[in-house]
Amino acid sequence: MLTTTEVFDDDALTALIAAATLLGADLKAGLFTNAATPSKTSVIADFTEPVYASYLRQTVVMGAPIRDPINGIASLSGGLLWQMTGTPTPTIVRGIFYISGAGPYLLGAELFATPISLVDDLDAFTSILEYIQNNALPGLTTIVR
After folding, report:
1. For the segment 58-97, what is each residue's pLDDT rounded down to a tens digit?
2. Model confidence, pTM
3. How far is CA 79 from the centre of its chain?
4. Per-residue CA distances from 56 to 17, 49, 115 (Å)
5. What letters, b where the CB count within 10 A reaches 16 and e where it falls short, cover 59-89?
6. 102: pLDDT strictly greater than 60
7. Rounded mean pLDDT, 45-50
8. Around Cβ 129, how many Cβ atoms within 10 Å?
């Protein structure tokens, strides 16, 4: 856990990413379809995952530290492509959540600004996790394109 007394620089973030199991190989992302309102007391069971045949939680791989002009020192994940394949099961995706560990442990969740409709295998979107190391605004955020 970062505190406001720590030094926030790229070396510190590199070390944090390398050492933190929460940002290691066991970090996964999943989607949810219900109108949940993520909060500090949310648990994984609060989120209903899509039921289309090819849906799986995806492993998140964090990249090297960058200097985000808005958020300061940050790290971006590789893009996660969310696309239905096989027999279509139309769904509306309302948000994303992040879990870690064998538990698994819920690290965070957020609603998308606009729900995303997946109707068939031509509909797809990419999400990118941004881990922010900033004493004013620490944590996770999702970029959807």
Report:
1. 998 888 888 878 777 788 889 999 999 988 899 999 999 9
2. 0.79
3. 10
4. 24, 9, 19
5. ebebeebeeeeebbbbbbbeebebebeeeee
6. yes
7. 96
8. 25
Cβ 11 vs Cβ 26: under 8 Å: no
Which residue type does 145 have?
Answer: R
pLDDT digits (tens, 9 = 90+) for 23-38: 556 889 999 999 999 9
- Residue 124's identity, in one-letter code, is A
